[in-house]
Amino acid sequence: MIEEIDTTSQRAALAGRLCDAIQHRWSAEVRAVGVCGSVAHGDDNESSDVDLVVITYRPRTGPKPAMRKVDGIPVDLRVLCAEEALAGARQLTARWPLLADRYMTTFGLHDPKDFFKELREAHQHLLTEARPAEFSQLARHNWAVANGARQRAVRLTQWYDTDAALVTIAEARVHAALVAGFLTRTWFRNPADAVKRTGVAAADMQELGAILKYQADELAARGRPVDGTLGALFD
């Protein structure tokens, strides 16, 4: 995460202007405003958007969440109350590898009481306390999604529905990447980063099948087999 925002960046400058506008209009309701994603990492470019998060004192106050362009730049505005944001940081979900970066690298544009530091520490505490079995269980969940998507992609290819098969195999690749993220406790900045860093971005049907077979063996070795008896479903 950057130590200070680069005001020469067009997207960072827009994030600052948005923060000022939000503070001016909802000063009594907003606790903190931050930016995450590429702007927070300091490597935004012409294809980047502005990921802005607004933390309010109470639910359903402050600006409304929105996704649209501002001065030609895509903006993703998320609005959360402080309690909701902290609850999310303290919860391990099936999409953790794609969510953790928000908790760990959000840069505070307006954060007088260090809320984003509190958010980061809450998530770090979660990762310290989480048991290996929890990561393996969520990896198995993503494995099931990836395997199902791959099987659907194979059928769609057999039916010559190439466009639908491409969409479905892309879904399978993302979830296979999430399995790898859980098995190694690695988080990613976005789905594209996930498939690239785990080496599944260009995997075809056969290669992805081999990757899923390897992951299934790894999950079995960790006590979370992907197949089992009816009773095992409820364990």
UniProtKB/TrEMBL annotation:
It comes from the Bacteria. Its EC number is 2.7.7.-. It is an enzyme of class 2 (transferase). InterPro entries: NT_sf, Polymerase_NTP_transf_dom. Keywords: Nucleotidyltransferase, Transferase. Pfam families: NTP_transf_2. Residues 20-60 form the Polymerase nucleotidyl transferase domain. One of its GO terms (molecular function) is nucleotidyltransferase activity. This is Nucleotidyltransferase domain-containing protein. The lineage of its organism: Bacteria, Bacillati, Actinomycetota, Actinomycetes, Micromonosporales.
